[in-house]
């Protein structure tokens, strides 16, 4: 380097250490300088570097590829005399400093990228891509490739069929030993995340591993972690070939959301059919998991469009979802709060929402509906417990006939039910009408009690089953038809006690008690009677009483000096009198 004019002797107050790093190929060593102390006090150059995914997308439509690896690019950029002393490094032969741009300086990549883009400004980016390569002076013949069908570029294998993972990097993931420390886990996830665009549902698969990286989580390698570790290595080994995007073809974005996370697939419809461009997945946070279904589905659309913004901005595209409510939600008038903010984000994109049945939406559905593999997930445990309670309650009512429900009224069979109905003043005329099979004229009903008149309005739904008057009723939630026994006054208190206060009834509130009674019973003004019974229940009053609203005792306020506390009574306004 001294004979080549790269370095020169130095008397600088700065001094950095030398580090020798083995090169990727061959036994040669790379000369590096540890400039971390210098970089810590350097004003950063924020010139943007090319994104890897952007560079890969520019190879769309190409069939032949060449790469030029050029020698010592940084050394073609001279340093100003004022900057040279700061690059000083110490060796066994004294202190030296660089005369040209050195590896390790934090602003070197941005400076070199700016220079290369100026040099190659006249060549279209689709024909020549620059990614911090060294391109002046001389070529490395063993690193140059000309007119290849497939070419290694930025850690990927690009070819005429599309973009795929690099075998040697996948092999490194495949042979990775089970992590035993947090540092090993972060290294593995860093390498695996490099290819996450190739893996469907990456975030859901790796959720247990990401959970171990949290600050409040102990590093305990569980069976779920081992399963996620193995699944991730298998998914990377069998990753598909992705198609570079073609701006001339329409984009299709399939989105889906589940209780665990969201997923999206960006694809294009070409002559060979629908080809995948990239995958996207993300697990929900604790707050997002509590969203309703429609809100989660809309959030999946917002996040997916934001993730693929580079592809979709300025182009019309189609969003396909299995949630039909999103079709009208996009044209929702006067939205508020969070929905309004999300719709405002989407307003800058030109797209249409297309509903697709879940049976045809498997590509995005599989990414979002992967079971939560997170051990001890409190949300999933609560959800499973809640679903189990609901399931038991539904099973207690599903497929019931009226008579098993009637057993809640102890010691009363069908014969006694009929006897009680015949003795009820409101039910006597109704039983005669139903037995005769004719609906009476209003003149016959006008002189009856209000209870009989109420049943007359429901005459078409009344039937005699096993000699007992019953009413046909449809469950509002499920549409299932049930038969309700018309309860006489003498047995109503027994029904209320059996559905609310009996052993195992739970002393539920008005809504649940009313829903339970309606499974098998009916009478006029049922809700009013349920409300009165629940309010008069001694057990409910003792355990579910109103909150304590007792006020604190009055106390004297200490005043240390005159006018420290001033009290004012405000009165008025007073009416104006004649005087």
From TrEMBL:
<feature type="domain" description="Reverse transcriptase">
    <location>
        <begin position="2"/>
        <end position="193"/>
    </location>
</feature>
<comment type="similarity">
    <text>Belongs to the beta type-B retroviral polymerase family. HERV class-II K(HML-2) pol subfamily.</text>
</comment>
<dbReference type="InterPro" id="IPR000477">
    <property type="entry name" value="RT_dom"/>
</dbReference>
<dbReference type="Pfam" id="PF17921">
    <property type="entry name" value="Integrase_H2C2"/>
</dbReference>
<dbReference type="Pfam" id="PF00078">
    <property type="entry name" value="RVT_1"/>
</dbReference>
<dbReference type="Pfam" id="PF17919">
    <property type="entry name" value="RT_RNaseH_2"/>
</dbReference>
<dbReference type="InterPro" id="IPR043128">
    <property type="entry name" value="Rev_trsase/Diguanyl_cyclase"/>
</dbReference>
<dbReference type="InterPro" id="IPR041577">
    <property type="entry name" value="RT_RNaseH_2"/>
</dbReference>
<dbReference type="GO" id="GO:0004523">
    <property type="term" value="F:RNA-DNA hybrid ribonuclease activity"/>
</dbReference>
<keyword id="KW-0511">Multifunctional enzyme</keyword>
<protein>
    <recommendedName>
        <fullName>Gypsy retrotransposon integrase-like protein 1</fullName>
        <ecNumber>3.1.26.4</ecNumber>
    </recommendedName>
</protein>
<dbReference type="InterPro" id="IPR041588">
    <property type="entry name" value="Integrase_H2C2"/>
</dbReference>
<dbReference type="InterPro" id="IPR050951">
    <property type="entry name" value="Retrovirus_Pol_polyprotein"/>
</dbReference>
<dbReference type="InterPro" id="IPR043502">
    <property type="entry name" value="DNA/RNA_pol_sf"/>
</dbReference>
